[in-house]
């Protein structure tokens, strides 16, 4: 398998994972064993060249995650101090 094919396969699998699970960049990076930067580059640069429909779906998930991120941060802080 060529390197480009391996990258394309990873990009498509990660995009499908994000679309199905509503996953964040961090969650996706953890599942696929790559960095957040790699996931971001894959979704923003490589995916639109491979599948514009899937790219739009992922963009919608990322927009929702970005809108909710302050809530997740607040919850994490609340849980942190609840433990103490």
Write a compact overview of the structure shown.
It contains 4 helices and no strands. The chain has helices at residues 3-21, 25-32, 36-50, 52-83.
Question: Which structural traits does this protein have?
Answer:
84 residues; mainly alpha; 4 helices
Description:
This protein has 84 residues and is mainly alpha-helical. The chain has four helices and no strands. It has helices spanning 3-21, 25-32, 36-50, 52-83. The radius of gyration is 15 Å and the shape is elongated. The N and C termini lie far apart (51 Å).
Question: Mind sketching the topology for me?
Answer:
Layout: H1 3-21, H2 25-32, H3 36-50, H4 52-83
Helix pairs in contact: 1-3, 1-4, 2-3, 3-4
Note the quaternary state here: single chain
Q: Strand portion, in percent?
A: under 5%
Rg result: 15 Å
Which structural class should the secondary elements be placed in?
Answer: mainly alpha
- Quote the average pLDDT: 91
Number of strands: 0
Biggest β-sheet strands, sense, barrel: none
**Which percent bin holds the helix content?**
over 70%
The outline comes out as elongated
Distance between the amino and carboxyl termini: 51 Å
Instruction: State the low-pLDDT regions, or none.
Output: none
> Helical segment tally?
4
Order of helices and strands: HHHH
């Amino acid at each position: 398998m060529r390197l480009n094919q391996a990258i394309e396969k990873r990009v498509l699998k990660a995009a499908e994972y994000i679309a199905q699970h509503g996953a964040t960049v961090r969650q996706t990076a953890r599942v696929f064993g790559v960095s957040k930067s790699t996931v971001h580059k894959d979704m923003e640069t490589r995916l639109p060249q491979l599948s514009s429909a899937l790219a739009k779906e992922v963009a919608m998930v990322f927009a929702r995650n970005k809108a909710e991120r302050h809530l997740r941060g607040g919850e994490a802080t609340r849980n942190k101090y609840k433990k103490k």
